[in-house]
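Appendix B. Extra example for self-study. Work through it before the problem class; the solution is given directly after the inputs so you can check yourself.
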Amino acid sequence: MRPIVLCRGEYLNDFLSKNTHEIRFRNCKGAEELGFAGKGLMLNSDYKSWTFNHHLFNQAILSPKFTDEAIDHTNKLFNELEIYWSKRSYSMAAYFDTLSNEKSDHQSARVINSVKLFQALRKLSYKANDVLQGMEFINQKLNAIIKSRRQEIEEKPLDEHLPHDMLTSMIIKNTLRDDNYIETGEATRPMTDTEIRVNILDGIFTGTYKIGNMLSFIVYYIAHNPDVKKKMLKEIDSIFQDDKMRPITKDDFYSLSYCEAIVKEVARIHPVIHLLTRYIDKPNKVAEYHWPADSLFLINVKSVHNNDDYWEEPNKFNPDRWIVKNFEPKKGSFLMFGGGLRLCPGRKLATIELVCLIALLFRKYEIDLVDMNTPIKTTNSGTMVLCVDLLVEIKPRN
Ligand code: HEM
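Solution. Structure tokens for the complete assembly:
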């Protein structure tokens, strides 16, 4: 198959319009073998099934109540993260127990299960047999989690409050527990366990790596741009005053506009997804040319983001460009979350997590790079750019 690389925003109009070019990849045997074909979102090329999942995924993750829950969870995760720093280990319970001789205070069965699940998820980029075995294990674990949550929900009286996390929302959607329940047939049926499992896996695969890598890039760019850091700290301090402990609220999140500008500017200058893909299974017109069926398009995000036809001084790291009144990037020139039908459904969650993490980190800690002279080390993994390592020195801020 001949791939066609697109490097200009104006060639993307067809892909970024809301109702065309819904296929990301050609169907392949691997996706079938792993149980992803025709399921979930990321690798789903079956339009009817994708529409159903897309609708329910979006409802679960874009609701105002989910926003509250996401901010609450980011606060909790950050508090947990800090505990390990004081023990001189730099990660969460699962990693802590793997890397350290000391063990965390969490129930061991929970930690052991979580370590096993994430080790299996990481192994998915290894050899074919490992991948298949890993997938079987992951499916078993996720099925057990879904089953147990279903049971917990069923045991609760119908009028009892339920949390708004993605798993609960997907289980109750289009059932009597759903506040917006209307019985109208196939389009509004509840999700099966397999559908929920693949959507949760999509969330893990497509969400965690990007946020983790972007946070490393953010720390790197803040360290190299003292004026940006000063402005960011001014915003953070004006919101939290001297309080370095209170949880972040929804109002704080909406007030952290300079922190959000930093997130967008890092995504522009150093996109974690440097290639988007679209596939046509029938002859079609794209960028004013006619293409045969079975053509794959690679959208070169970095070249669009760094083009001076769309961006003033594109190589300058300048978050201020995002806070100019009425500023909107030119059409097709900012692709942090892709666009069109396959636009990232996790965009709000990603922004909440990154903005809140910047504020939680920098209001309390001074973060410096160990090596200010070497450029950040990255590696390409398919469509993603990953941070290889970034050594930092963290100490409490005065
Ligand atoms: C900084 C964080 C993130 C970035 C930069 C990002 C970026 C992207 C991009 C560029 C795409 C492809 C869009 C396209 O082809 O037009 C995508 C797709 C997707 N993202 Fe995100 N994403 C992030 C976080 C998340 C999170 C937290 C979730 C969910 C929990 C998520 C779920 C998805 C899913 C399910 C798709 C596939 C959508 C579909 O095919 O319909 N993403 N993301």
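Self-check: Residues 3-396 form a domain with the Cytochrome p450 fold (CATH 1.10.630.10). If your reasoning did not lead you there, revisit section 3.
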